[in-house]
Structures are given as structure tokens and as C-alpha cells.
Amino acid sequence: MKIKWKWHIALMVLALLAAPPLVFSRASASTLYDSNGFENFTVADVTGQDGWTASGSGGGTAPQIVTTPYPVLGTKAVLLQVPDLQGSASVIDHSIPTVIPGDQTIMVTFDIFRQMSYPTRAQNLWWWWWDAGEPTYGLQWDSGGSQPFQTLPHGWNPGASSTSTVFYQFATIKMVWDFSSDKAYSWYDGVLIDDGIPINNISSLSGWTINLSHDLPTGTGWDTVLIDNFSITSSVPQPTPIPVPAAVLLLGSGLIGLVGYGRKRFLKK
């Protein structure tokens, strides 16, 4: 009877050790583009550096890489400028490897420094994906309209919200598209703005534009924007095994011991 009991215990312990490990999900991240703070760029036109294109129109300045005495994080940033002329613009663009949405989470983040020519005036700063769908654009609104000086990370898309724009210091904007749940999120200056608004009809993501645009009438002032630390990343949940903790094994062994002890007493009867 003792031999049967020992084999019984051994088999149950082996079964516990052979059981599949616990599994949880973690994100596997990849970089679609990272400016690395523009630190490796030359102080000159942005166009042609690290895949960027840039342009000025209607009197707007073609974006430049600048350093101090301009406000920068690190040593360099991108300068966009428009004169006091309606219709002028200063624009930067960058492509990424085309993303076909599945269960990825896409994040776009960059730092913005806003400066106005007058204390009560500002022009529009727009940003957008090159692709169709919602939400695919956002902006910092000028001094006109019903939302002056507001930052709208996901624009006027259904459910989107806004907050006051920060001036004369850098503030970080972060926008997230979670395609596993078809929800979009955003943060500005560390504050949550959009907490899961609907994603609709986005079938691809292929590039990004930032556009400083003098949309107000002439006479409302020139404007200057600096952009730093621009990046786009993608993450996909990945299953990761977790070894069974030793405490769990010991607990299992103790329970098995109790079962074995009961079995032994039963066989002796």
C-alpha cells in the first residue's frame, strides 16, 4: 500500500509541474518614426533632412531647424513662422511605413512652443494624418471663433474635447489610437483630454503634417511655433508566459500531500 501512495504523490506533482504557465498580455512596441529631438539635424531648412519635407506658402517661412537663443528642448527644434498676412502658412510633413489597422495602438507625440505677436492674438496650428477617417486631425485654435486659444487634440470629431493652449513654454501633446478597441485618447500638458472617443473608417495611416496657418484676416499679427521631440510609435499586445511562483508550487505540494495522506489512510482501512 505504501508503494501505491508514493507513486500517487509523484504523478500528481509531475502533473502540476507540467501544467502550462500562466499567461498575460504585454505590448510589443516599434518605432515608426522618431526625430530624436532633432538633435542630429543641421541648422538649415528642414526639407531633405531625415525624410522630412517642408514648405512655406502665401508669404509663410519654410520651416527651419534652429538652436538657441530660440526656445529648444535639448539643443535644436523646428521653427514654423507666418507673417501678418491672411493665407500664409508654414508646413512640415513626414511619411511612415503604411499601417493597416488591426489590433495595434498608434501613438503620436510632440512638444509645442506657442508664441504670439500680440498678447491677445494667435493663429491656427493644425495637424493631421494624410489618411481618411475619424479622428485624423487636430488643432490649436486661433483668437477667433467660439473656442479661442483652445487645444483640440482630435479636432471637432464626435466626442472630442479641448483645453486651454499653453503659451510661452513647451507643452507635450500625445494622441493615441487603440485599434483593438476602436477608441482614441489624447493628453495635453500632462492632462487627459479625450478618454476613448470613437474611431471610424480609418483603413490606413501613412504620414503626418503640422501646419501653422494664418487663417484670420491680415492685421491680426504674425505667429511663431516651435516643434520638438516628434515621434510615432506602434504597439501590439503580445502573450508572455509567467513561470508559476514557488509559493504556488509549495501550496500545490501541500495540498497534494494532504490528498496523499488521506489516500494512504483510506488504503490502510
From TrEMBL:
Keyword terms: Membrane, Signal, Transmembrane, Transmembrane helix
Cleavable signal peptide: 1-29
Chain segments annotated as transmembrane: 242-261
Protein known as: PEP-CTERM protein-sorting domain-containing protein
Organism: uncultured Desulfobacterium sp
